[in-house]
């Protein structure tokens, strides 16, 4: 819900055009090609999807329960969804869980049971019937787990832990050095001795260690500084009994020594929590729990899951349906526990990756965080004199080995299995554990992010989008809608959801997975239905909400936007080298990854983060100065090592990366170092001398430059002739840009990012509107793509430039605009042969072969085309704007009904006359009412103009709305920016207006939020004038100005709530037409032309 919607000054100044031939178009021209597909995208891939949460297999407790699945899937299909992701997610009472475990004659209602197979089969059959795609969550929950292993098996998740024993001077020790933490779970988790080490203790201190994925604070852990010269491994000496782990050692020195025992063991992590999650099978071992997390580093861990699904859970009928309607197997974020991840084959993998054994260095990898790169400062054991940073290098080698194991052993195993066995794909959130999220995204069929973990920071998506694009993948998915911010599962407004989605898509997301849709029933469910995550987390998004009546407006907008953002490949101007490669690095308090205060983005540059693993890809080659021209097409690379950035300093870099950069630079790619240069290699064995030689070779390249600060970067890029594909004529704050290219067509997506952020959502109405002029690169002409209505219209008012076109855009808070640079043939919509370059306060368009304009004031209007043609028109009898204040209200109040938990009683409250205030301030309604409010009024347009129309401006409302004017319902309403073109549904004289506002359900279940229509409602009449190409009156009268000249509204259907106006601007080169030179045309216009130019330029400034 908007905190405050802007007044009339925020209305868009849009330019709408229809098909033209020469300067006009025949009325018979029809939309085809891209435009037809955009209007109504058909593929499941471009449509919104949703998580579909089941409370175990409770739906199989009755035939009615299974039929409810069919009803819900049909509801989602009818709402415009393209697919679902099935998962067992429970928020149940203890007695409900007992009911699931007790089951019926077919067994329990737990995951993996015969009843779960019934649920899965019903879902797949219904999806086939109603045209949805089905994704399947891997395993019963996350992290992925199995009931066929114990925590002591090699296939289970493992960790390294340690024990420490101090020995005073002259003293001896004999015994077992116990691990610092001991598990008491049943069965007892077995420690396996990996090594014993001894060294003189120099001092004790404190290490700052991040504990797990969702703990953003660094916690203290004791740190031991060891003497490097006395450190030694004694595992294979007589001092150690490997059978019983007993260690015997005498300290015959005058210093304190420490003994360190390192153990591997199962982590004992289970997803069961306080209750059993998975059904026992014949192969289930007596583990005390049913679901132990599998090893995420080994092929064996992955195959534990694939073998279970192939051989136990999936019947032949299920397998066949998966081949027909299956989409992707999904793995959620890697929320793993443990001190330092381990795997049975870790030693072999490390040796192969790094060229040396990790055995003698095991103490130094203790305490590696689950998501961070680590320079050694967080190590539990360090050396006193470590000038070559041995500890940091070993730790980095260990991190990279883990990352490669996840990618090679897990991601590729799951992906190959899904592709080859079921013709499906693998979708994954590649963060949480140690993994190069960029490299992983190049291998995952669909990588996925989420604003909840990413704290709505765009740079995390940009990192994963770089991997997607370098890997030749098409999609970056997004778990959207999970939020704890609103305090209720029914309090997250759709406009905030859409604004959050818009922001994420501006960073590279092009497929959204809604969080989510809950099955209706559980054993003890109450109205309004089951909630998979309890009542404090957002969702379920379903017909339980009054605002569902407008869901097709919303899904239509999402589906069309995603359709555009899935075209071709994403083209990005700049690659920024990012050595800290995990997308979930927020644990260190890091928000952005590049801290230039918006200098790059304000100029129009798009950028992504290029992680070390991307250098390894076959696509990582430079041709003609462009990195991967068939992919993202980066035209420069930045290496950020400024002293004021929040992430770790880039003092060390891998020598291989430096050499790769040299190859890039020699092939013509500009590379700019910002701040200090690195001085050391990153990995063990890389000497400073070797590093210096490699760096000097790189710096010797003509395309490499070092600058002192972020402020110097734009000039450096300009020196290398690297300009943005979407270049703002003047820097503009808070506008993010995406460009996709399909063949010769370029699609530009603009988002106003000025609104405030919470952890997982955008609060609409807290930002500011933006107006800017931008030069777009591309052939063809600019088209406006309206994701709300599906209309594709060529832009009338723009200026041709040497590289494309210059257009002006007014972009409201949290809203978007999409512009395509394309040919008539590719777009499927004819375009005018000449564009308008000047006009005086008129929004021009072509309609049925005529040049028209929408105006809100009486007067004479003029338009000058680039070919020199001058068009004129006169408008009279346009009524003034008026605020509507005389309202009658009827509220349909939703409360618990009789019957099942979905039964809703809908009581009519006749309020009568009312002010436009929240329902909580209306005595007849009150603050605990949710439902649908219908507001009625009439207004009179005192005019005889037969070409009358009007814009309706709503200041604020919650949650969604629809408009009926004179008995005609407006097809689609922009649910972010509340401006509606009533078109010719209005008429001279009296008009009746009905506004239906569907509230959030939160009030009805005890969470107070504002509801209803609030603030001012304004009608701004306009007239449509047909312009003719006649010689103008030498001294024409100028149009009378509206009350607020800057507030001239325009057609909100002109594109995603934004608008596009051509304008002279400050950039680009005007190319005059053949009919009449521009100078001659201006002379012909005389005073009128001067007025036109002056007005237009004033509007552009």
From TrEMBL:
Protein origin, superkingdom: Bacteria
> Which keywords belong to this entry?
Hydrolase, Membrane, Signal, Transmembrane, Transmembrane helix
The answer to whether UniProt assigns keyword Membrane to this entry is yes
Domain named Beta-mannosidase-like galactose-binding: which ranges?
Answer: 934-1007
TM spans (from-to): 1075-1095
Short name of one Pfam family: Glyco_hydro_106
Where is there biased composition of kind Gly residues?
A: 1055-1070
Q: Per its UniProt record, what SUPFAM superfamilies does this chain match?
A: Galactose-binding domain-like (SSF49785)
This chain's protein is named Beta-mannosidase-like galactose-binding domain-containing protein
Give the species this sequence originates from: Clostridium facile
Organism lineage: Bacteria, Bacillati, Bacillota, Clostridia, Eubacteriales
């Amino acid at each position: 819900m908007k905190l405050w919607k802007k007044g009339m000054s925020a209305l868009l100044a849009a330019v709408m055009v229809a098909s033209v031939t020469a300067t006009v178009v025949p009325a018979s021209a029809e939309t085809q090609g891209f435009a037809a597909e955009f209007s109504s995208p058909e593929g499941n891939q471009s449509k919104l999807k949703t998580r579909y949460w089941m409370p175990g297999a409770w739906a199989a407790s009755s035939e009615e329960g299974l039929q409810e699945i069919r009803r819900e899937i049909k509801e989602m299909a009818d709402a415009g969804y393209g697919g679902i992701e099935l998962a067992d997610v429970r928020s149940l009472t203890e007695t409900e869980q007992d009911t699931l475990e007790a089951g019926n004659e077919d067994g329990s209602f737990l995951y993996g049971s015969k009843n779960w197979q019934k649920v899965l089969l019903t879902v797949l059959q219904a999806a086939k019937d109603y045209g949805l795609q089905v994704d399947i969550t891997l395993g019963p929950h996350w992290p992925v787990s199995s009931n066929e292993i114990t925590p002591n098996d090699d296939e289970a998740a493992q960790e390294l832990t340690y024990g420490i024993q101090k020995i005073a001077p002259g003293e001896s020790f004999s015994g077992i050095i116990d691990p610092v933490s001991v598990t008491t779970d049943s069965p007892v988790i077995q420690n396996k001795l990996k090594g014993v080490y001894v060294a003189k203790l120099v001092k004790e201190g404190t290490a700052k260690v991040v504990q797990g994925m969702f703990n953003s604070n660094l916690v203290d852990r004791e740190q031991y500084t060891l003497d490097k010269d006395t450190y030694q491994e004694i595992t294979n000496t007589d001092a150690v009994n490997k059978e019983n782990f007993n260690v015997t050692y005498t300290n015959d020195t005058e210093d304190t020594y420490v003994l360190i025992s390192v153990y591997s063991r199962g982590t004992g992590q289970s997803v069961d929590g306080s209750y059993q999650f998975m059904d026992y099978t014949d192969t289930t071992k007596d583990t005390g729990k049913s679901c132990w997390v599998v090893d995420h580093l080994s092929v064996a861990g992955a195959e534990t899951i694939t073998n279970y699904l192939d051989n136990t859970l999936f019947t032949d009928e299920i397998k066949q349906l998966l081949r027909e309607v299956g989409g992707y197997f999904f793995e959620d974020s890697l929320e793993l526990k443990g001190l330092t991840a381990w795997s049975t084959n870790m030693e072999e993998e490390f040796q192969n990756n790094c060229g040396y054994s990790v055995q003698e260095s095991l103490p130094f990898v203790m305490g590696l965080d689950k998501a961070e790169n680590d320079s050694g400062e967080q190590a539990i054991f360090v050396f006193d004199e470590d000038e070559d940073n041995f500890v940091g290098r070993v730790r980095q080698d260990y991190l990279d080995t883990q990352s490669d194991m996840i990618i090679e052993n897990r991601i590729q195993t799951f992906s190959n299995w899904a592709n080859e066995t079921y013709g499906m794909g693998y979708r994954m959130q590649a963060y949480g554990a140690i993994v190069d999220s960029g490299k992983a995204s190049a291998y995952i069929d669909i990588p996925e992010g989420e604003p909840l973990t990413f704290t709505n920071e765009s740079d995390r998506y940009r990192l994963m989008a770089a991997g997607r694009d370098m890997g030749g993948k098409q999609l970056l998915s997004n778990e959207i809608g999970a939020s704890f911010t609103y305090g209720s599962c029914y309090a997250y407004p759709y406009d905030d959801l859409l604004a959050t989605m818009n922001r994420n898509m501006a960073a590279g997301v092009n497929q959204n997975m809604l969080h989510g849709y809950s099955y209706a029933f559980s054993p003890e469910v109450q109205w309004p239905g089951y909630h998979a995550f309890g009542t404090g987390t957002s969702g379920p998004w379903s017909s339980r909400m009054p605002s569902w009546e407008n869901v097709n407006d919303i899904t239509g907008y999402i589906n069309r936007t995603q359709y555009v953002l899935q075209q071709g490949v994403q083209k990005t101007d700049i690659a920024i080298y990012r050595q800290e490669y995990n997308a979930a690095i927020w644990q260190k308090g890091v928000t952005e990854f590049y801290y230039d205060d918006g200098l790059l983005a304000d100029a129009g540059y798009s950028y992504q983060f290029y992680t070390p693993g991307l250098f390894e890809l076959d696509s990582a080659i430079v041709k003609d100065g462009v990195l991967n021209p068939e992919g993202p097409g980066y035209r420069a690379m930045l290496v950020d090592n400024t002293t004021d950035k929040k992430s770790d300093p880039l003092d060390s870099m891998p020598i291989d990366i430096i050499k790769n950069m040299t190859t890039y630079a020699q092939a013509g790619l500009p590379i700019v170092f910002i701040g200090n240069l690195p001085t050391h290699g990153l990995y063990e064995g890389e000497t400073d001398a070797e590093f210096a030689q490699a760096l000097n070779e790189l710096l010797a390249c003509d395309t490499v430059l070092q600058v002192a600060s972020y402020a110097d970067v734009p000039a450096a890029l300009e020196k290398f002739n690297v300009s943005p594909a979407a270049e703002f004529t003047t820097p503009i704050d808070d506008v993010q840009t995406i460009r996709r290219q399909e063949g010769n067509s370029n699609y530009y997506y603009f988002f106003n990012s000025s609104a405030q952020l919470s952890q997982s959502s955008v609060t609409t109405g807290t930002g500011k509107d933006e107006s800017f002029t931008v030069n777009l690169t591309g052939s063809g002409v600019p088209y406006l793509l309206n994701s709300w209505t599906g209309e594709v219209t060529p832009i009338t008012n723009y200026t041709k430039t040497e590289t494309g076109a210059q257009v002006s855009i007014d972009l409201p808070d949290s809203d978007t605009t999409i512009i395509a640079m394309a040919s008539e043939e590719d777009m499927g919509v004819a375009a005018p042969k000449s564009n308008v370059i000047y006009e005086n306060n008129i929004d021009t368009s072509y309609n049925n072969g005529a040049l028209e304009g929408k105006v809100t004031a009486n007067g004479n209007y003029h338009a000058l085309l680039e070919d020199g043609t001058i068009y004129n028109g006169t408008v009279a009898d346009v009524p003034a704007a008026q605020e509507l204040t005389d309202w009658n209200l009827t509220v349909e109040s939703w409360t618990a009904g009789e019957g099942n938990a979905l039964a809703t009683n809908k009581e009519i409250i006749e309020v009568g006359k009312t002010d436009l205030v929240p329902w909580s301030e209306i005595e007849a309604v009150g603050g605990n009412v949710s439902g649908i409010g219908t507001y009625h009024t009439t207004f009179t347009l005192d005019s005889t103009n037969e070409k009358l129309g009007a814009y309706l401006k709503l200041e604020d409302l919650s949650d969604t709305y629809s408009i009926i004017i004179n008995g005609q319902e407006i097809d689609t309403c922009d649910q972010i920016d509340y401006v509606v073109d009533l078109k010719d549904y209005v008429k001279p004289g009296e008009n009746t207006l009905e506004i239906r506002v569907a509230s959030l359900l939160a009030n009805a279940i005890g969470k107070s939020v504002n509801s209803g229509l609030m603030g001012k409602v304004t009608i701004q009449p306009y007239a449509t004038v047909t312009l003719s190409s006649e010689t103008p009156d030498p001294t024409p009268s100028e149009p009378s100005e509206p009350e607020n000249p800057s507030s001239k509204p325009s057609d909100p259907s002109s594109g995603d709530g934004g608008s596009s106006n051509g304008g002279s601007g400050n950039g680009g080169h005007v190319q005059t037409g053949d009919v009449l030179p521009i100078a001659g045309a201006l002379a012909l216009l005389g005073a009128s032309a001067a007025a036109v130019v002056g007005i237009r330029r004033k509007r552009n400034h």
